[in-house]
Amino acid sequence: MDTVEMMEVPPVAKQATAEKRQRRERGSINPDDIIKGAFELAEQVGIDNLSMPLLGKHLGVGVTSIYWYFRKKDDLLNAMTDRALRQYAFATPYVEAKDWRETLANHARTMRNTFNGNPILCDLILIRSALSPRAAKVGVKEVEKAISSLVEAGLSPEDAFDTYSAMSVHVRGSVVLQRLREKNLAGEDGHGDIDDTMAFDPETAPLLAAVTQQGHHLSASDDRNFEFGLDCILENAARLIEQNKKPARKAPARKR
């Protein structure tokens, strides 16, 4: 740091200098800068509250500089979703045929943990669910690899598709329920779900009262519910693979 920077500057002058330094020159911003800044801002205010004027202020540019590349908020969110999906796809482990059960379970758990750990990713890919053709193509390639591995493991193409689809729906449903619960709790009413707002009467619902008192949840998306559902999907797939291994019975020879 040189001598000039160490000199005391009046507060008003400091503010003016900071604003001048933060303000970018016209034409000095590009789409990558805007998308990166949008992710930074979304971490602070959320996807729902992200706006072009707020983003312009965050980046230190006029809002027209953003509209030059992204005509509306949906266009910007589509670009953010493209980037998020590519990063997510590369971070998700592959499903391997030789140990399909372990790798599919690991695939599901990693997918769930990734979304639960990144609300912005969840809002963009799962809740918003508006993928550009390019982003959708990236997702299709990853699903094709996983289903191909399940076919190699012994499932029919139809059963492999249904197994992966069931796993994917189970993961996404679990994550979205958890995310919506968080949003509801953060709202003005502060209500999460049925497990947060009521207790079961032992006289009218003795089974529900007894089980929920042990820590089970009826509608909340917790680890216990997730693992139970995942195990059911894996067990069904294992049963189908075993069935496919059994040799087909030969039809009895016709009598002449």
TrEMBL record:
Pfam family, one: TetR_N
Cross-referenced Gene3D superfamilies: Homeodomain-like (1.10.10.60), Tetracycline Repressor, domain 2 (1.10.357.10)
Sorted UniProt keywords: DNA-binding, Transcription, Transcription regulation
InterPro entries, per database record: DNA-bd_HTH_TetR-type_CS (IPR023772), Homeodomain-like_sf (IPR009057), HTH-type_TetR-like_transc_reg (IPR050109), HTH_TetR (IPR001647), Repressor_TetR_C (IPR004111), Tet_transcr_reg_TetR-rel_C_sf (IPR036271)
Residues annotated as domain HTH tetR-type: 28-88
Annotated GO MF terms: DNA-binding transcription factor activity; transcription cis-regulatory region binding
Compositionally skewed regions (Basic and acidic residues) per UniProt: 17-27
One BP term from GO: negative regulation of DNA-templated transcription
Protein name as annotated: Putative transcriptional regulatory protein [Mycobacterium tuberculosis H37Rv]
